[in-house]
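Bench notes, afternoon.
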Amino acid sequence: MKVILFCSISIDGKIARNVNDDLWWTGRADKKMFAELSRKIGVVIFGRRTYDQMLLIYRRLGRMDRLTKNRLIKVMTRKVKSSRFVEEQVEFTNNSPKDVLRELEDRGFGGVVIGGGAQINCLFLKQDLVDEIWLSLAPVLLGKGLDLVVSDRFLDKRMKLLKIEKIDADGVILKYRVLK
């Protein structure tokens, strides 16, 4: 199963200002790229806080139908509550990353997009489950905020640059293969 970690980052390497960031600084082309990739692959994995932020954004836009359109969303959380289900295309799990991937593969999915946040990114990277990292580099400095991975955990991952793709006048996607 191919696992792509997709993350929007500022020039100074932040994925958000804080846990409640609305992510408007990332730009339209970035959001479009994520939507296209996750719909093409068919599954996106979020942590609970990232999923909650996505819900707020889509509700504010009045476009809840687009959040789950043509993709399954798996939400990794310590506390699974069935009352939190929004649609049949959203599933909550407290299983390990390996078990989540195995279950998705058993259901016929050939890949998955990891949509964050920092804890989920770290879990998958630490267990060597990520094949590629796509970084959408936004032309903004945030100064302080959340890092790509939880910074209290040691990671030493080497990458090979696959492609640099310009997505709009000022933004690029950096595509890396994770060396194992």
